[in-house]
Amino acid sequence: MKKILIIAAASLSVIVLGLFGAYKYLVHQDEQKQAEVEKKAEAAGISEEEFMEQTQLIGGIDYEVDLDKNSTDDEIISVMHKMTHQKVRAEDKWGAIPMTEDTIKQVYEVVSKRDFDDAGLKEDLLHILQKWENNNFLSADEDHNYFWEYQGGTVGRAYDTMSQAEEVEFIRNNFK
Fold first, then answer.
1. What CA–CA distance (Å, rounded) separates 134 from 127?
2. Within a 13 Å sphere around the CA of 74, how many CA atoms are in the beta-carbon half?
3. Residue 61 Rama label (left phi>0; alpha psi -120 to 50; beta)
4. How far apart are CA 156 and CA 92, in angstroms?
5. pTM listed for this prediction
6. What string of pLDDT tens digits covers the 176 residues of the chain?
7. What is the 3-state secondary structure (H, E, C) of 75-139?
8. For the chain, which residues make up each domain, given as ranges?
9. Per the count of CB atoms within 10 A, which of 6, 30, 119, 125 is most buried?
10. What is the helix (H) or strand (E) element at residue 160, kind and residue range?
């Protein structure tokens, strides 16, 4: 009987110590994550809240552009709009497609080979895509708003471009 009590007490002690250790580990992880967010927000020159808001997981993630010569103007605009979401600050974002050399090239090929009813639209899209091909994203917020307005946007107008730290965090959170 005494042996059982000793084993039970030892087992209970191991469980309590294990739970306490796990709790301390999780608290330490949370503190490290918070410190990392603070550091990244400071580097971006914005508040922690805005950093978290702009880099959080959003819905509607796609990894493929899924465009071809039969794609509509609206489908092309939608893809390009979603691509800008990793580059811009906006009140609200829905949908994202990674803006990579490959996705830019895919969209460029479709736009350049396709006839548009509005020649001005094709010219505008090619101009934007050429900037992107040259890694020029300084006006990504203006590009976003061009697509946003074309689609009749009412919520989610871009108001700035993200810092490199914000973009890296957005990519990490959304395109794992």
1. 11
2. 2
3. beta
4. 4
5. 0.75
6. 777 878 877 777 777 777 666 555 555 555 555 556 566 556 656 677 777 677 888 889 999 999 998 999 999 999 999 999 999 999 899 999 999 999 999 999 999 999 988 889 999 999 999 999 999 999 999 999 999 999 999 999 999 999 998 999 999 999 98
7. HHHHHHHHHHCCCEEECCCCCECCCCHHHHHHHHHHHHHCCCCCHHHHHHHHHHHHHHHCCCCCC
8. 2-44, 60-174
9. 125
10. strand 158-161
Rounded Cα–Cα distance for residues 45 and 169 (Å): 15
Which pair of structure tokens corresponds to residue 8? Answer: 């039970």
CA 152 to chain centre: 22
d(CA 39, CA 17) in angstroms, rounded, equals 33
Give the integer Cα–Cα distance in Å for 30 and 53.
18
**176 is written with which tokens?**
């794992």
